[in-house]
């Protein structure tokens, strides 16, 4: 079989009359045939895919090529822009000899073009429109992945979420969850903690410390309100899909939060979108860059959720593309769900690399044109081994592909340009300011304040009761003395004379002065008796 025959035979497996994403042209023995097109049918994009390869082999440009053609076909795209490499989608490309040569060898009519891009950042510390998720929406499983909790701690966090929900305590941000855990581990909340069952105070303390660490690293700017509405990711503009480029912002030290956030959006979409079945083109496509961050250290529950979401989200018309250096970075349960494979060059410098290469070779269909193992380590920059699903759902022949050049700028547009576009976005008016509604933190604080005030009121009431009892005793003693004085007056005869004598005596200035002095001395003695400050006898 001649070189041209081999190229045309491979290209025949990619032939389609329906709309498709042009990836490039078939190469055999280092020569590309511009007429032998390698394409991914648009109707198969929601069967998911993998873009893999070592650093510097062209993965980012392949992502750019895929995203801009999806946008051009009216498909919204969410792409993780961890290093800021894909911001060039917002500006037209620049003509140069390399681009012209690549376009000619791949058989594409190249024209510089910009695409509609929304720049968003995780939390308020980035240069894009700030996006957030509430703690409640995120849920215990995804949050456990971000916090790096083990299975036991993850289970405990689930019980804490359940208790907060039963008590009507909304968890919007980190301080809400921290307040709930602080309450449960306090003396006032120990009965509530015991009522949950299966929650140890020590485990709750570990979770609380993890939350404090996350908050100190800027995580508090991501969790909050208003939460991102997934519908804002599914917009079109002038017939083209809007590309939402999500950058890390001040979460650069926690890339796991980034990938987990994308997984949360997928889960939200799965809950909200109706069943679509087979579609002519996807409703939305997700591109997970640095996908290994999603699975490193993941709990069993998290892994199961990812697998289930990827399996089922296809029927909602959503495609998911994972990007990583090694295919082995992706769990086999997920890898088996990916219909498209774009594999850039692999390096085999270490025994671990060689083992990964061997595993990768076994995942490809057999080829009578290429030695897959040799090809994977011989691919040049901007070249890839490709296999996708044809329109009838069958794997296409493996094609050594010269990738077509992107039409947008193959460089960053700079932070200033990104910031300017973000501030002018309609999303900025919706998400630009953080809102702090009444939630668990405020409710528990009000409860604690009310309990403290209740204790103060109870102590004051007890003091007043003691004082009232003491006054009653004094009044009783005074009444008894008056009764005794009345008894000494006999049968009451001569009362008028006595009253006259007393009145005259009291009218005497000397007598009045003496009585005032005696009353003052007696008053001081009574007062000291009541408050316990009576003078000691000598």
From TrEMBL:
<dbReference type="InterPro" id="IPR051162">
    <property type="entry name" value="T4SS_component"/>
</dbReference>
<dbReference type="Pfam" id="PF05872">
    <property type="entry name" value="HerA_C"/>
</dbReference>
<feature type="compositionally biased region" description="Gly residues">
    <location>
        <begin position="478"/>
        <end position="493"/>
    </location>
</feature>
<dbReference type="InterPro" id="IPR033186">
    <property type="entry name" value="HerA_C"/>
</dbReference>
<feature type="compositionally biased region" description="Basic and acidic residues">
    <location>
        <begin position="460"/>
        <end position="476"/>
    </location>
</feature>
<feature type="region of interest" description="Disordered">
    <location>
        <begin position="449"/>
        <end position="538"/>
    </location>
</feature>
<dbReference type="InterPro" id="IPR027417">
    <property type="entry name" value="P-loop_NTPase"/>
</dbReference>
<feature type="domain" description="Helicase HerA-like C-terminal">
    <location>
        <begin position="33"/>
        <end position="537"/>
    </location>
</feature>
<protein>
    <submittedName>
        <fullName>Helicase HerA-like domain-containing protein</fullName>
    </submittedName>
</protein>
